[in-house]
Amino acid sequence: MALFQEIQTPVVKYNQPLGLFINNEFIKGIDGKTFETINPHDQNLIAAVHEATEKDVDLAVHAARAAFEGCWSTVTPSERGKMLTKLADLMMRDIQILAASISLDCGKVFSAAMLEISSSADCIRYYGGWADKIVGQTIDTDAASLTYTRHEPLGVCGQIIPWNLPIYQAVCKVGPAVATGNTVVLKSSEIAPLCVLYMAQLVKDAGFPPGVINVISGFGKVAGAVMAGHMDIDKISFTGSLATGRQILRDAANSNLKKVTLELGGKSPNIIFPDANLEHVMSWVNLGAFFNQGQVCCAGSRVLVHEAIYDRFLDMLKKCTEINKIGDPFDPSTFQGPQISQTQFNRVMDYIEAGKKAGATVIAGGNRVGSEGLYIQPTIFTDVHDDMTIVKDEIFGPVCTVHKFKDESEAIRVANNTHYGLAAAVHTSNLNTAIQVSNSIKAGTIWVNSFGLVSPQMPFGGYKQSGFGREMGSYALEAYTQTCWNAGKA
Ligand code: NAD
Fold it and tell me: Active-site residues (predicted)?
């Protein structure tokens, strides 16, 4: 099978790498296996991608270990920073290709994919800036001693990412790992391999030595599981579902007790108080619930509305979603594209049917768009109660439930009534309400009068079963280093 394939998208024609990226080269898998990746818009085959199996994971880990102990340890922090900055520049140079490969492979609306790439370049640039600013402390213990701390890299970091924000997830992990002097084996999702492979090509052009950043494509239960249980991987950073997170933790515990950070699912509440500017709120609720077809870990899938504005709010939200244009991700007027795969489509439709059967009322959507394809109407449920699966489970599709509350304490109780704790939002013009409610919600991120805004400077991660550890910001640097102290007497 080919290692490269010319791909024509509606915006750009480019040469797509398809191999495993190990030691700065695209190569075939040792077992010669490939798997197909499908365009969710028309469900046509895009390409056959080389699949990593156990021996390929070993090869990638070996390359990363050799680089860590060899050339990479001699590269100065400032040189590491320059390479990351160069990578960010190259991503911006090829922004159209990277964005088009996401839209083609994942069905993401092209403008959203462009935003993902520019945000990802910002993230890489941010960590490039950190590379030469990682410092320890000197600590006064007694007059005759010199005591100081150092932050050392962990070694070889395994990074496993999902498909919904494939480049952003990749850079949130690669950036801090490499800035702090680690080497990386990154596995993309089996349903979104293309854009990550294209980014791998830029790694070589950015000047990273062979083996520092290795990128493999493959299945979770094969390559992913081998990584989680690998004896020579020092850390796994995982973003994905709760069930997989649990399995990875077990595999890490049963192998070399590698360090683990987990970024898992969410069921985020979006709380609207009566003093909020409803016109303003509407676009945040619409984005929160339906951006990227609802395939966002922090999606505002539970909308909590004060009883005084409930009827008016529902009317406005219904009208707002009815004008969301659904269709071809490359059409500039499209707001919502297809779900990424038949499996995800079926899963979301099953939840919608379960909601209807459980007695919830559908006030908008509730069906697929047309009679074929992977498109689902933005769906709003009311008359919901706590034990319905549509209220409890992360649906990961364009579906939200609307809950009525009478006062602040009820809003807080409902908001916290979930085993997830990734994010939340509070909409109010009262500063006291904003602060009190934000401080009472058990979630890693709380937005006020907005939704879904992220920045490389801000830590992101979950409370409860949304995972542990933080990505982004200076906090992520801690997750890729260990602190040691040295002391000596004169
Ligand atoms: P998933 O758990 O099915 O897969 C995620 C990754 O794990 C993929 O690369 C997959 O190949 C791999 N994998 C699967 N089984 C594995 C195993 N046994 N061992 C090792 N690796 C394995 O999740 P998904 O469907 O790709 O993504 C959707 C989920 O990701 C949602 O739950 C969403 O909330 C979550 N997510 C969380 C965040 C966050 O920052 N918290 C961000 C994006 C997505």
Answer: 263
Q: Which helix (H) or strand (E) holds 24?
A: none
Closest CA to 339 of 161, 189, 150, 163: 163
> Which residue, by CA, sits nearest to atom 30 of ligand 1?
240
Gap from CA of 309 to ligand 1 centroid (Å): 37
Q: How many CB atoms lie within 10 A of CB 261?
A: 22
* Nearest by Cα to 105 from 241, 237, 197: 197
Q: pLDDT by residue (tens digit) across 101-153?
A: 999 999 999 999 999 999 999 999 999 999 999 999 999 888 888 899 999 99
* Contact of 166 with 186, CB cutoff 8 Å: no
Q: Counting beta carbons within 10 angstroms of the beta carbon of residue 257, is it exposed (0 to 12), middle (13 to 18) or buried (19 or more)?
A: exposed
**Paired tokens of 297:** 């870990």
Q: Which helix (H) or strand (E) holds 190?
A: none
Closest CA to 41 of 109, 114, 112: 109
Predicted TM-score (pTM) of the model is 0.98
Catalytic-residue membership of 478: no
- Ligand 1 nearest atom to the CA of residue 225, by list position: 19
Q: E-assigned strands of 259-300?
A: 259-263, 269-272
Token pair recorded at residue 366: 């509730």
| Residues near ligand 1 (Cβ within 6 A) | 160-165, 187, 189-190, 219-221, 224-225, 228, 239-241, 244, 247-248, 263-266, 297, 394, 396, 422, 462, 467
ipTM: 0.96
Helix 166-179 to helix 110-130 angle (10° resolution) is: 10
Alpha helices in 338-463 (DSSP H): 342-357, 389-392, 408-416, 431-440
The arithmetic mean of pLDDT across residues 295-318, rounded, is 98
Residue 362: strand, helix, or coil: strand
Q: Quick one: which atom of ligand 1 is closest to the CA of 227?
A: 20
